[in-house]
Fold these 2 entries.
Entry 1:
Amino acid sequence: MKMKSTKKSFRSLSQTIYSLLGFKSETNSTWANTVCDIIKSLPSTADYENDYHDSANCHDDDLDDFLISKLRAELSVLNEEVSRLNAQRRQVLNEFLQLKGSIRVFCRIRPTINGENYSHKKPVVPMDSNGIVLNFTENKTKLYNFDQVFHPDSSQNEVFSEVEPVIKSALDGYNVCILAYGQTGTGKTFTMEGNQDCPGVVPRTIEALFKQAADSNHKFVFSFSMLEIYLGHLKDLLVPQARKTTDPMPPCLNIQTDPNGGIVIENLVAIQVSNFNHAISLYRLGSQFRSTASTNSNKVSSRSHCMIRMSMTCSDATERRKITNKIWMVDLGGSERVLKTKASGRRFEEGKAINLSLSALGDVINALQRKNSHIPYRNSKLTQVLKDSLGEDSKTLMLVHVSPKEEDLCETVCSLNFALRLRSIRLGKTEPNEAREMRELAMNKLQLEMQDIENNRDKFTKEIKKLNQKLNSLTKTSSDSNEILETVLEPSTVKTSVKPPSSKVPRFMRPTVCSTRKSGTGHQTLLKKEIRPTRRKRLPVSRAESVNFPIKNMTESYSSSISRASCLVELNEMHAEDNDTVYSHDTDFSSVNVSEANQWVYLHNNKRVLPIPPPVQISNPRERKKKGNDYISLISSTGSTKSMTGVDDSYTECDISSQIMSPDAISDTCYQNDYVNIADGTVLSQESTHETWDTKAYDSKDDLTANVPGVSDLLKENIMILYNIFLLGLGFGNLGYEPDFFQALMS
Ligand SMILES: Nc1ncnc2c1ncn2[C@@H]1O[C@H](COP(=O)(O)OP(=O)(O)OP(=O)(O)O)[C@@H](O)[C@H]1O
């Protein structure tokens, strides 16, 4: 235990050294370095450790080290095992998808919706999980085969279970494309988006991506984009759209090809998303900007192709197909027979544009399936955007939607013929039954194998998480103890990253404004805005970043600068409060500084600077507002970007932030000088007795004089003058001015 106590005393010593920084002008970083040099020259920890080992075979820190290295070794074995299983799973999945086909076509039959009338004979009948029969007349039927047929009562869950394998492919680095195709009003948006109770493919895919990425033992960075292709133009759905002709137009989206053949959409917004909720909120936002309209076939009909893109980057998995890849989820515009919908004007143009691009998409997929040498990507914007996600090295799912209604039979035939064109020639109806059964058997086997691998991997991943937690708690305790000494030895890091532990230091030991100014430590501390939780709470020793605030025609002593944070707070609040109230009790403390500074350096129209505001109460709210406006005009005239961020040499200026009290000094002053209302004995804090444009402050002062019975106006004025002298004495006293300075000033 001797060793432990020695270490502890060293730790507390370094802490003490650190807390003394800035207490006296001598206790600066040079001093701290010297003391730490002395500490370094003392017998090293290793010497103690050796001694300790001699005296006792076991020690807490050694045990920690031993446990840490043991945990690390275990983790590396487990991680290797997970990587091996991942590679195995990837291989099995690929085999599985190859048997299934890299372009797969599903068919979903929409259920009947309330109020719809149907003829006695059902025109669209699902056969089994792959077949669908169309009944044209009594004795004329036609059978269509697909990779999967979803019956009218199939749930969103069932649909997603067929989609899920391609999400795994996406995480393996393949580009993936999920397309919802069909006549208008057949349920494309329902499948892709779903509703609150039955979420569709898009939310489920996003959720699965985040979940599977978390389970994968690799670090993924996801980004979300959303666009629509409307009348042949690309429109970013995450950018506010121009409503009036005078509104600026959003940047034009151009499609480019990078040297590797990847598609780049210029100016498309891609927002990094770290979790499901974040991505979904963006999706909801984008959905609001979609172009929809009411048509004869659908009350809320999508008049464009809506495309959602999740890009993912994973640089620590070398076995992935690509470092960055993407998954497109596309709710295609509804195919429609213009004659039937009787669309005209804009609706007609929209329908025509949708049909043309759908036809181009069909041509591309068909050419890919036939392995044609020329793939006609350039025939539409839709196929240009999807160029790198439809080819050889990617996975495509087409969900074809059909209506159950007899009157829609023509459109249903068109949709199913379109879908048939997309089906792999190899997997078409030419495939013999025997071969098909063999293929299905092999696929089932691979699926079981994959399930087995995933179960094992999950077991290991859980174990890794547990071990990591243990390791974190062990390494945290050992690194915490070294951190403080390192900070003292490395004074440059104190500047921005470490906050002095002022709350642990007794008040009398904390630096004053002057000492901070002399030692120069004030500017080394936090740049962040401090929130003042309650009026009486002590604030840490910290100062807001100060910027020069040039004022024309000012002598050096009266020129000022204010904190950037406070300036912004003031401005915001003045605008927000319609200039009536400058700050409230929970205002940033630094903004209080500015208002107090305005009592001492009152600025009017940026021309005249008086040391003290005239002790005139502004009871008329209009006047009060005007005064506030003067302040605003001051901030806006002198607080321009230039003056806020830099120094303008044409002005005489000095940094008044060094004259304004530090928040701590102000809070100290408040403690020492709480004002007792002589009439009712209540304690008013200094803040509330100051003359600012805070209505509360005025009320307090009004109370102060009004509550004294029989006080004449002259007496009131004298009290106010005395009171101002008192305040000025306090404030300026803290800044190093002598009382006779004020007497001279007042006289
Ligand atoms: N499987 C389903 N279960 C329940 N309701 C459905 C289903 N499919 C579609 N619907 C309902 O049918 C209506 C039309 O669906 P939806 O708007 O999704 O069609 P759409 O194909 O996207 O049409 P458009 O191309 O005109 O945008 C909606 O009210 C939707 O809720």
Note: Residues 1-100+452-494 form one domain.
Entry 2:
Amino acid sequence: MMALEQARREISALSALATAVLPVEEALGHVLAAPILAQQDIPHVATSAMDGWALAAPPESGPGVPSWELRAETAHSPVRQAAPLGAGEAAEVVTGSPVPDGTVSVLRTEHGIISGRTLTPARTSGDLAEGRNVRAAGTECPAGTQLLPSGAVLTPARAAVAAVAGHDRLEVVRRPRVVLILTGEEVITTGIPRGGQVRDVFGIALPGMVTEMGAGTVESLRLGDDPEMLSRELRRITEAGEADLVITSGGTAHSRADSLRPALHALGAEILVDSVDMRPGHPALFARLSGAAGTVHLLGLPGNPLAGFAALAALGAPLFDALGGVPADQRSRALSLTAGAPLQGAARGVRLVPVRSGPSGAVPAGHSSPHMMRGLADSDALAIVPQDGVVQGEQVQCLEIPGQRRGGHRWDE
Ligand SMILES: Nc1nc2c(c(=O)[nH]1)N[C@H]1C(S)=C(S)[C@@H](COP(=O)(O)OP(=O)(O)OC[C@H]3O[C@@H](n4cnc5c(N)ncnc54)[C@H](O)[C@@H]3O)O[C@H]1N2
Ligand code: MOO
């Protein structure tokens, strides 16, 4: 039995998967394996920030507002740069189009009065000031600037900045290919359970959860409780080299009906974490299977619904972070929340308590026995409560519940 903190540390220390070069769209959600640099100045040419007219230096004229001569040729094209402006000349521009050389400022459409080919700015317009409404080249950054560091997760906004910088393909850490093996003869996937049947919770929730945690692909298999069938399946997966990570549900305990430990034993698997000192979820295990095609890691989640999901939140987060290449110092993240009510500890180890936000902070969500789902469904986080408990007002470390952030309560309410 290993302390939760130590189990998370051991798992966090795993090496990242290999890197791959992917088109930007496919690289979304991956961790960058190399920094992203600007390949040229951004913007690379001076452009107009307004629809209007690019103005050359003001013409020599008497007192009052000067006028410009409108060039016959327009600079309507947002891509083509018009010929340089002559003295006293103005040329039409649209937002984003390159301004002609010699542009001092851009006069926006609504500030100009045209009479024949003469353009006169409104008396009150501030658009004559040098540089007004012109986006100078390199103002966002000069060429060579680092826009994103290696180790950053490529969010949609970061993919967009990589595209702005002219990148088509990015070097990223591969995301784990996951196979879910859902065990249990009594588990049904449709309809109302009868007799000793239970409706499956893992097959429905795990794919979304592990995808959010950083899985690349997810496949699911269903097996009964036969250890021989389970070890055959695990051998096949390891030899085929078709997965980086297997996550199983059920069969983690020590009764004759529990298949996971006997199956791993038969395969000579290396058990890296054999039970964790946490309630619920203590029979969880983490193992390594080696075959000719490489290494496959295995996370065994207990079958009791809350126990299984608690084990995923506790051990899965550092695991996906490590395999997916999240920098080492960010792999075992926990939130610190204020306890809005006393939180009771377990007789030993830590207790993982589903909590939701209340006016005074995190309060137990209730309905949180290991076989239940209601508490987790109504919670925002899992508080890691030490043996002595936590008093109201004290800070408590909490785990994120995968996939629950969007649907959760709001901590700032
Ligand atoms: N003598 C002991 N018995 C048990 C111990 C123990 O220490 N000594 N530990 C208990 C704890 S704690 C847990 S957690 C469970 C672990 O169980 P397993 O991982 O072996 O899981 P199963 O026995 O297969 O199932 C347990 C429970 O969960 C239900 N289940 C399984 N799969 C699903 C699913 N996909 N969807 C919904 N529910 C599922 C299953 O029907 C059982 O009710 O062991 C305790 N026993
Ligand atoms: O892991 Mo069991 O409580 O922890 O149901």
Note: The mean pLDDT is 94.
